[in-house]
Amino acid sequence: MQGDLKENANGALSNQFISAALSTDTANITLNWGITYQRIEGFGAFAGRATPFFESPKRDSIMKQLWGADGLQLNMVRGEVMYTYPFNKSAGTVTIQPAGTSIDMDVASAAYQALTSDQKAQLSQLWILKKLKERYQVPIMFASTWTPPLSMKNNTSQESAKNFNGLNYSCCSTDFANYVAGFAKAYQNEGINFYGISPSNEPENVFSDWAASYWTASHLGEFISNNLRPALNAKGLNTMKIISSENAAWGTANSFLSGMDKSNVDILAGHGYVEIGDLILGKRGLNQNPQTWNYATGNRPVWMTEASDDSGVYDNTMTGGLKLAVNMHKFLAECNVNAYVYWLGMLAIRNNESLICTNADGSLDYPKTYDVMGQYSRFVHAGYYRFNSALANNATLKVSAWKDPVTGKFSVVVVNPGSSETRTRIKLAGFASSQLTSFLTADNTTAHWQQSAPVTPQADGSFVVVVPSASVITFTGTAQ
């Protein structure tokens, strides 16, 4: 990474090459420890498309690479309130595990193969969440609801929200609230205490064929306050947070939530796909310029709960990786979100919607999006705060800085979507550090996060570093 900055026998940069580097600086970053922004709650992925995950012979490795210490170190997982669970309306109970099954049953067994696709999905999700708790103690598990059971919808034969198909308010608001609460209670009985639950997923999506439910902002707010919160409380789930509204586009979520009763919404959420205007023009994929919401959030946490590149041909290079890097930077450093959750953790095929993919021969493929996700999730932990990182003399880099106020550890994530290597001076204001270590993701890196030798400060306490072209690089250190 820094081969052009020659080191002497002791690992220190020679004065000759320091002078050369300083004379050609093309970016300056000033980190101001005393100016602090939002607190990070974490990073995660969706555990849905659960059946191929459960059936994969590499499922243990996949789980480790997503949530384990050697992998992305995710601390969040998003599940699904499936609409196909058996529901005892009079008792308000939901059955989340098919009768006669075990989460450890052999996927090749006749008993498993005899299950319906819905039952396999139900069992698979339960296995994923229970193993995540058992193996990795994942602290933040939450679930989103794509659609109520079909019997509770206006069109009882239609999974999607096409033709504005949604919850039948005249008959079924209480039943649906009890269904969601019953799902959460059933999981609690299995040892899974959901941190939060969302009654909707992309409530404005009346175009797509997949499972969805149409909501207006007023109806969703009323349902949460009048039905869902009371139903959760009645099950003893008073501390479970309600997440809403999870619109597909960030700008749509802004409009939707601004006109909604949010008095019982604990976490405000939206997704990271292109805005509706782009979608109408045939564009898809990751939003490259989400805008900060223009209404007061009331100091509630703001989560980005789903994003991926659904725009086309599989791309496991830095071209795809940089799309995610820009998206993550914009949401975290400009829209001030407290949590970022990717769409799919794994797929049994090669697809841009997943962090880990499967090749035709069954081997796993790790696209650069996996590595980019790790540039944040591995080095910006829950409890870190974003602090000021002022960029000067450069219009290409995207920089965010994060600190642990308890330990003094800090990370600086730098995205360079440009075609030129950038010599950069990092200045420290209000603190000092004895060294920086960098971790690089680029097309030519073979390790997921290529680690450098530590860099020591100059006489004035600043650091001279090189940010390669088309890369994401994180610098870590400890404040003194």
UniProtKB/TrEMBL annotation:
Keywords: Glycosidase, Hydrolase, Signal. Residues 56-242 form the Glycosyl hydrolase family 30 TIM-barrel domain. SUPFAM superfamilies: (Trans)glycosidases. One of its GO terms (molecular function) is hydrolase activity. Pfam families: Glyco_hydro_30. InterPro entries: GH, Glyco_hydro_30, Glyco_hydro_30_TIM-barrel, Glyco_hydro_b. The keyword Phosphoprotein does not apply. Belongs to the glycosyl hydrolase 30 family. This is Glycosyl hydrolase. It comes from Chitinophaga qingshengii.
